[in-house]
Amino acid sequence: MRFLAGRSIAVRLAASALFASALILLVAGAILSALYREATERAFDNRLMVYVNDLASDMLAAGDPDQRPLGSLGDPRFDLPLSGWYWQVSRPDARPRDIRTSRSLFGGQLAGPVRTADPQPFGQIRKGYAQAPDERWLRIVERDIDLGQDGRFIVRVGGPADEIDGDVRRFTFSLTITFLLLGLSLGLTT
Q1: Tally of CB atoms within 10 A around 164
Q2: Contact 51/21 with Cβ under 8 angstroms?
Q3: Are the CB atoms for 174 and 13 separated by under 8 Å?
Q4: In the chain, which stretches have pLDDT less than 50?
Q5: Helices 161-189, 9-59: inter-axial angle, 10-degree rounding
Q6: Residue 126, CA distances (Å) to 52, 131, 168, 179 in order
């Protein structure tokens, strides 16, 4: 702020107020965008968990767990090839031909969510991002279930991450316009 050295106190106060306001709006915008991303991911995860729990409850039906009918989730996107909405049920050590998947996977397999280096014990719910067979990013929720004598299974459901990104982009754009107008009005009133 060397260019303000010879200016009057009113000009220096106005410039300081404008600079502080711009900085506060920038920091507030970054925080609000991060919080909105978190809330959007949490809502998306909750929606995916409904599907995971539905598939897990299908596994509890009587009969051979490897032959039980699965996948009547009530959402046609799980039937459309490469729709971005996928589910998969398998044993932890399953061979590729023993993995049961939604029709939308079209013969592919659903990768697990990106994990940390620490192995997690069986029984956990894991959330994260992974690539689909068609190379787009998915938000994945994975749950382990133990059926006792029938064995253990991993239920995995994924949805397109671009839905989350699109919501966050729209929010950030609206927030940016709002804060620019607010900053402009603060500048004019100062």
Answers
A1: 19
A2: no
A3: no
A4: none
A5: 160
A6: 11, 15, 22, 36
